[in-house]
Amino acid sequence: MCDARTILCKTITEQVTETFNGQIRIFKNKIPSTVKKLAELPEEDQDLYRLYFTEGYSQEEIAKMKGVSQNTISKKLRRIQKTLTEMCRNEV
After folding, report:
1. HSE-up of 40 (CA within 13 Å, CB side)?
2. Can you tell me the distance from the alpha carbon of 37 to that of 80, in angstroms, rounded to the nearest whole number?
3. What does DSSP assign to residue 68?
4. Radius of gyration over alpha carbons of the chain, in Å?
5. Alpha-carbon distance 62 to 67, whole Å?
6. For residues 86 and 54, is the Cβ–Cβ distance under 8 A?
7. Is 22 a residue whose pLDDT tops 80?
8. pLDDT confidence bin for 91, thresholds 50/70/90
9. Angstrom distance (rounded) from CA 89 to CA 26
C-alpha cells in the first residue's frame, strides 16, 4: 500500500541521493588538485590535516597528542581549511 507519506519519503530520498552523487562527482574531480595543494602546506599543517581528516582523530585527541589546547587545534584546522580553499580558488 502506497500512501502520500511513503511517496514523499521516496521522492526526498531520491533527490538527496541525486544531489549527493552529483557532489561526489564534483569532489572527485577536485581531489588531485587538493592533494597537490595539501603538499604545499607546512609539514605541521599536513600532519594535523592527516590526523583529523584522514585518520579520524577528534580535536581533543589531537590536542592531547600535541600537548596543546583543543581551541588551538580548532583554530589551526580552520586556518588550514581556509588556506586550502583560497589556494584552490586561486587556481581557477
Report:
1. 12
2. 11
3. S
4. 19
5. 8
6. no
7. no
8. low
9. 15
Output the nine-digit C-alpha cell for 69: 589546547
Residue 50 has pLDDT above 80, yes or no: yes
Cα distances (Å, whole numbers) of residue 34 to 10, 62, 71: 35, 23, 25
Q: How far apart are CA 69 and CA 8, in angstroms?
A: 46
- What distance in Å separates the CA atoms of residue 9 and residue 14, rounded to the nearest whole number? 9
- What lies within 8 Å, CB to CB, of 58 at 6+ separation is none
Q: What is the pTM of this model?
A: 0.61
Q: Helix or strand or coil: residue 40?
A: coil
**Residue in this structure with the C-alpha cell 564534483, named with its chain if needed:** 26
Structural element, H or E, at residue 90: helix 70-91
The 8-class DSSP code of residue 51 comes to I
